[in-house]
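Write out the 3D structure for:
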Amino acid sequence: MTRFAQELDLVILLGLGYQQFVHDLREALAQQGFGDAGPSYGYVFRSLDRRAMNISELADRLSITKQGAAQLVDEMENRGYVQRRPDPGDRRAKLLYLSEKGAAALAAARRFHRAAERDLVKAHGPDAVRTLRALLETIATPENLADPRWRSPHV
């Protein structure tokens, strides 16, 4: 460990590690044609991957206002990541779906997540990565671990 890293609080190091991961992910996505993906898109991708939902359901799942969800979806629709289609159960309502581009961006992000973990195993060994995972699980609360927004991108 460097002298500079030793001078930082552990939680700061965790945050810096996460920031670097996000930077590298966004760079990798940009190289694959998804440079216009916003910072919150991943939450929507994971939410819509399992099933279509309306704006209200998405807002609840993301713990944001309906207006915030609508603005995010409008942006994502304009960039080609989501589609709105009529709800077969309610003609007045629209359901949100991932578009082909959205599904491709999610797949690219999932590949990046898997590769990042493989790289950690190569660099530090499987025991170190298992230990790191176990330590992080003790820091996260059971409620956070159960939150559907955090479900594994490896699925």
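The CA atoms of residues 132 and 138 lie 10 Å apart.
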